[in-house]
Amino acid sequence: MATLEEKLDKIRSPNLQSQQQTGVVLKAVEETLKEQNTQPTPTGYFAALLALLNQSLESGKINRELTPSVVYLLDVVTPFAPQPLLRSKFTQILTLLAPVLLLDDAEAPLLRPSIGCLESLLLAQDSAAWKLPTTEISPRRAVAGLLNLAIDPRPKVRKRAQDALKKVLKNPPPSPSLDHPAADLCAETAMRSLSEIAKKAALSRKQKKASAEHDPTLIHALQLVKTIAAATGGWPSANIEALCELLLSIAKSGNEHMTMAVFDIFEMIFEGMADEVASAKLPRLLEIISELRPSANDTQLLPPWIAILSRGYDVSAQTDPEETFQKLPDLFAMISEFLESSSHNIRISASECLISFMANCIPDQVIIEPSIYDEKVLEKIGKNAESLLSVKYQAAWMETFNVLGAIFDALRWRANPMMLNVVRTVGELRGNNSFMGKKEADEVLGKAIRAMGPEAVLSVLPLNLIKPVKDQPGRAWMLPILRDYTTNTNLQHFKTEFIPLSEAMFQRVLDNGDDAKTMEIKIYETIVHQTWSILPGYCDLPLDLTVAFDQAFAEMLANLLYRQVDLRLDVCRALKALVESNQAVASLQDEDNLILKSRVSKEDAQNNLTFLGGFAGNLLAVLFNVYSQTLPQSRGPILQTINAYLSITPEKELIETFDRVSQMLASSLNEANDKDKKAQKSKDSMPSTSQTLMDLVITMSVYLPRQSFGPLFNIAALIIVKDDDPQLQKKAYKLIPRLADSETGKIALRERNTDLQQLILSSAEKVSVPARRERLAAIAALVPFIPDTALHFIPSVLSEVVICCKEHNERARTSAFELLVLMGQKLADAKGKPIDNSKVPHMPKDAPPVSASIEEYFTMVSAGLAGSTPHMISASITALTRILYEFREIINQEVLSDLVQTMDLFLTSNNREIVKSVLGFVKVCVISLPTELMLPRLPTMVPNLMVWAHEHKGHFRAKVKHILERMVRRFGFDVVNRNCPEADRKVLTNIRKTKERSKRKKEAGDEEGNQPNGKRRSRFESEYDEALYSSDESDASDDSDAEVLGKSRKAQKGGSTYILEDDDEPLDLLDRKALASISSTKPGKIRKAGKTKAKTDLDGKLILGEEDGDDDVMVIDTPGGNGEETGVGAYVAALKSKDVGRRGRGGRLKFSNKRGKDDDDDEMDVDEKDVSTIKSQINRGGRGGASSRGFRPGRGGGSARGRSGRGGISAGRRGLGEEKRHGPAFGGKVGKPKSPGRR
User: Fold this and answer.
1) What is residue 1012's predicted lDDT score, i.e. its pLDDT?
2) Which of 272, 787, 810, 1103 is the most buried (most CB within 10 A)?
3) Longest C-alpha distance within the chain, in Å?
4) What is the arithmetic mean of pLDDT over 584-592?
5) d(CA 72, CA 114)
6) What is the DSSP annotation of 658-678?
7) φ/ψ of residue 851, rounded to 5
8) How far is Cα 869 from Cα 347, in angstroms, rounded to an integer?
C-alpha cells in the first residue's frame, strides 16, 4: 500500500484537469500548516481538513467547488490518522458528512470519498460505540446510511458502498462474538429492502407492466445480500429461513439473471459455512431448503432448487462426511423421483445432482474399510440404482446412464455384487439391435469393467464366442470396451478366459490353410487381435502379479514376440505396463490415496518389481533379439519396453548383459571392418548389427553401475573415431547426453571429465558431417561438469563451435548457438578462475594463463575475426552477434565499444558473406545496445551501411532498409538523416513518408489494418520480437536473424496467409481442393468468371476443334477471368472501353501505365505487325476511339505480362493446387512481342 506522502505527491502534480482544484486545496492546507508551525503529519492534515470542511458547509449548503476537494483529501488522509482520534471525532465528522450523504442530488465524485471517510471511521470504532442505537449519532446509524447507498442506481457509488460494508463487516472490533455487531442490522435491512423490491417486481409482472423499472433495483438488492453473505461467513442464523424462502421465490420468477444471482448468493452462503465454526448453521439451512421443495412439475423453480441442494450437500460432505453419507439413500430416492418428469431441464438437473452426490458424498473410508452399517447404506444405493432402469424412467434413460456411470466410478470395487443386476440389464439393452443408446450403454459397461473388474462383468454377460450357448447372443462387441476400460484387476482371469479364446480363433484361421480368406476368417483374425489388445489393461497394476505371471506365461509372450509380428505392439505395451504401473505406485507418497486408487500398497508394488526383476534377464534377451529383427520405424515400442526392464534388472544380471552386448558389438565392428563398404541402403533395409547393438548400449548406459563405465567409455572412444559409418558415430556421441540424465551418469561424467575432454579433442578431425549436431550436443552435456581447473577445454573446442554456426543443417546451427551461450555462462560463473592457455591446442607451450570472464570469452571468439577465410570470419561475426545479444547487459562497456568499432570496419569489406553477417550484428546493436554507446558510432556506421543499400543480391538492400527503420525508431529521423550521405537520403525520406502515411491511416481508423503498425500489438509475443520483426519490408528480416538470436522462426512467419474466396459462395475448408485457394501473398482483385463461348473468326464463323493457345494471330492476350472476351470480342470490347491504344513515336501502340481502380499493368509496347489484323477495326472505329488512354482487352482479359515477371496479378495469384496459367501465344512461345524499333 502506498504511503500518505506518495498519495499526496500524486495530487500535487495532477495529470487530469479535474484534479487541479484538489491540488490547489492541498497547497492551501500545507501553507496554513506552515504558517501555524504545525508538522505535516496525518493528524495535522486531518485537523486542518476537518476545519476546512466545517467552513465549506457553514451555511448549510454544499460549496460545489470546495467541498468535493476537501472530502477527497479527507478520504486520502483518514486511513493514516490515529484510531483514538477517529473515535473521538466520530460524532463531529458524521454530523458534517451526513448532509452530503443524504443529499438527493449529490454527485458521485462527492459521494465516493465520503463513503471512504465513513469506512475508515467505522473501522476505528470499538465494541462500546457499536452498542449505541441507530437513533443516536452512532456507528450503526452510519452503517444504515451505507446500506441505503449500497443499492444506489449509480454503479460506482453502489460498488464503493458495498466494498465499504464488506470491509467493515470482515473486521469486527475485538469481542467474544464472532459476528460483527452490525451483522444483524445489515442482514435485516438488506432482507427488508430485497423483500419490498421483490414484491414490487412481482406486482408489476402481475399487472403485465414492463419489468425493466424494477429488475435493475432487484439485482442491486441481491448484490447487497451477496456482499453481506460473503462478509459475515454465511448469514445470521435468525434470518436464514426467511432469506431462503425469499430467494427461492425470486428464483421462481423465471428471469435467468435473477436465478443466477440467487445461485451466487446461496454459493456464497455455503462457502461461508465451509469452515468448522460456521458449519453448525448448515444442517438447519439444508433442512429449510428441503422443506421449501417446489412442485414436481415446476420447470422454473425446480432446477435451481435441485442445484442449490446439490451444492449444499457438497459442503455438508466436507464438514460432516459420515452424517451426510447416512442420508445419501434418502436423498438419492428424493431426487431420482424427478427423473420421471416430462421436462428435459428437470431431468438433466436431477441427474447432475445425483452425479454430484455420488462424487462428493461417499467418503474414502467407506470404500476402503466399510462398517456393517456402511455396507447396508451401499446396498440401498445399489437398489436405488436398479430402480432407475424401470419402465417409469424410460424417458430419462440417457440421463440415467450418466448417473449409473457415476455410481460405478464412486463405488469402485464395492459395486460388486450389488450392481451386477444393473450390469446385466444394461448389457441386455445394449445387445438389442433396435436400442438407440449403444454409445451411452458402452460407456456404462466400460465404467463397470473398470470398477468391478472384467471377471465380474463377464460372469453376468459372457462373451459366448468359443462355444455359443443356445438362445444366448455372442458379445464380440464387448472386446473393444474391455480393451479401453480394463485396469487394476486379476491377470489370472486373462489366462483362463482370453488365452483359450485366442487359441480357438487362431486355430480356425490355421484350419483355413493357404485358401483365400473369407470374411469369416478375417473376423476370426480380428478377434485374435482384439483379444490381445486387452492384455495391456490386465497388466496395468494387476492384483495377482506374483501368482499369475509365471514362467509358462512369460515363455508364451516370448513366442508371440518372435512369431506374431502383428501382436508385438500389444505385448510390448503389456510388458511395459507391468513395470511402469508398479513403479508409479512405489514412488507415491500419499499412502491413503494410494490404497483407494489401486488396492496395491507401496510395499506390494515394490515386491512386484522385485519379482519382475527375476524375469528381466530372459525377457531382455528376447527383446534384444526381436529388436534386431525389426525395421527402424517399428522399433520405438520395443526400445521403450527394454528401457523399462533395464530399470528393474538386478545389478549382476545387468553387468552380464552389458558385457555380452559389448562383446557382440566388438566382434560386429571387426566384421564390418573386414567387409567392403556396401552401396547406399534403401529405406526399408535393416540397420547394421553394430548400429542395433549401439542402440542397446545407449539404452543400458543410464542403468549401469559405476564399475561398468570404464568399458562403456572405451566403446564410445572406439566408435567416435570411426568416420566410415556416420550413423554409428552419431549413436556414440549420444552416449554423453544420455548419461547426463541419470544421477550415476552425472557422477561418471564428473569423474571421467578429463578423459572425455581428451576424447572430444582427439576426435575433432574424424567427425562426419551428419554427426556434427550430436557432437555439439555431447559437448553441451559435458560443459556443466567441467571443473574450474579445466576451463582450457572451452577455448580448445571454441573454433569448431563457431564454424558450426554456418552449418547447412539448421538443427546443427541451433545447437551451436545454444552451446556458445552455455560456454559463455560457464566462464561468467567461473569469473576469476585461471584458464591455462598452454594446454590449448595450437597455442604455444609458454602461453600465459588468463582469468575467466565474459570479456575474455568475447576476446576468444573475436580471435576468429583474424581468420584466413571469409567463411571463418563470417562465422565468428555470427557467433559474436549471438553472444552479444545474450550477454549485452553484463559485458564491459569498453569491450562493447571496441567490438562495435571493429564491426564498423568490416562493413567496408568487399566480401558479401562477411557483410551479410555484419548486417545481422549491426541490427542487434541498433536494437539492444545503449543509445549513448551507439550515437557516437552513427557518423561512420550509417555511411558504411548506405554503401550496401544499392546491392540487390542476397536481399542486402532490404536488410539495410530494415536496419535504417530500426535506427529511425530508436534514435530519431533527424539524427540518422544528419549522418546519412546526401546522395542516399532518398531512402530515409521514403521511410519517413511511409511511416507518416501509415500513421495517418491509423488515425483515420483504417479498418483493413494493412500496415504492420496497425496490428503490432497482436502479432508479437514480446517487445523484442516486435522491435525485431515488425517492418514494412516483409523480407527485410532474414530468417537467420531469428535463429542467431535463439528465436522461433514460426513467430515471424505467422499471419501472412490469405484465402482467395469466390464471390458466389464461401470457401469450404473441409474440401480437399481448398488448398488451391490458400495463398501466401495478398491476392489482387479476382475477376469474375463467365460462361465461355465458342471461338469465332473475323467473319463471325464458329471455329471448332482447336485448342486454346493455338497459333491464332488474334489471340494476343491470355484470357483472364472472363473467358467470353477472346479473339475479336476482346478487341471490340477494347474499342468501347476507356483504355484504348495510343500511338507513340515510330507508329507503335503504347499502353498507359496510369492505373485506374482495378488496373495493375505497366506500360507495354505492341508491335504494329502483330496487330495488323485489327488495324482496320481500329480505323473503322474512328481516330477518336484510338486516342484514349490505353489499349486494353476489356475487364475480363488479363494483361500480356505484368511487371517484374509477375504476370497478370490482377487476376489473382495462382493458389497451391491450381493449374498453371499460360501467357500469350506468339508462334507457340510465351513472350512479349518485340517491336521493330527496339534494340
Assistant:
1) 44
2) 272
3) 116
4) 76
5) 7
6) HHHHHHHHHHHHHHHHHSPPP
7) -90, 140
8) 81
* CB burial string 755-786: b at 16+ within 10 A, e below: ebbebbbebeeebbeebbbbbbbbbbbbeebb
Question: Do residues 25 and 53 lie in contact, with contact meaning Cβ atoms separated by under 8 Å?
Answer: no
Computed over every residue of the chain, the mean pLDDT equals 78
- Cα dihedral: 1155, 1159, 1162, 1165 (round 10): -100
The β-bridge partners of 1229 are 1226
Is residue 324 scored above 50 in pLDDT? Answer: yes
pLDDT digits (tens, 9 = 90+) for 806-863: 999 899 999 999 999 999 999 999 888 888 888 888 888 888 888 999 999 999 999 9
Q: How many helices (H) and strands (E) does the chain have?
A: 60, 11
Give residue 402's pLDDT: 93
- Quick one: pLDDT at residue 1097? 61
- Average of per-residue pLDDT across 661-674: 81
Query: What is the per-residue DSSP string for 1011-1076?
Result: SGGGGHHHH-SSHHHHHHH--S-TTSS-HHHHHHTT--HHHHHTT--EE---SSS---TTSGGGGG
Q: What one-character DSSP code corresponds to residue 141?
A: H
Cα dihedral 535, 541, 543, 546 in deg (nearest 10):
80
* Cα(11)–Cα(30) distance, integer angstroms: 13
pTM: predicted TM-score of the whole model, two decimal places: 0.67
The torsion angle over the Cα atoms of residues 700, 702, 704 and 710, rounded to 10 degrees, is: 100
Beta bridge partners of 246: none
Contacts of 663 (CB under 8 A, 6+ apart): none
- Give CA–CA dist 443/99, Å, rounded: 68
pLDDT reading at 1178 higher than 50:
no
- Cell triple for residue 702? 543410464
Per the CB < 8 A criterion, the answer to whether 373 and 417 are in contact is no
**CA distance linking residue 387 with residue 1045, whole number of Å:** 67
Cell numbers placing 46:
486531518
Model pLDDT for residues 876-911, shown as the tens digit of each residue: 999 999 999 999 888 888 888 999 999 988 888 889
Torsion of CA 793, 796, 802, 808, to 10 degrees: -90
Question: In angstroms, rounded to a whole number, what is the distance separating the alpha carbons of residues 536 and 9?
Answer: 70
- CA–CA separation, 298 and 384 (whole Å): 24
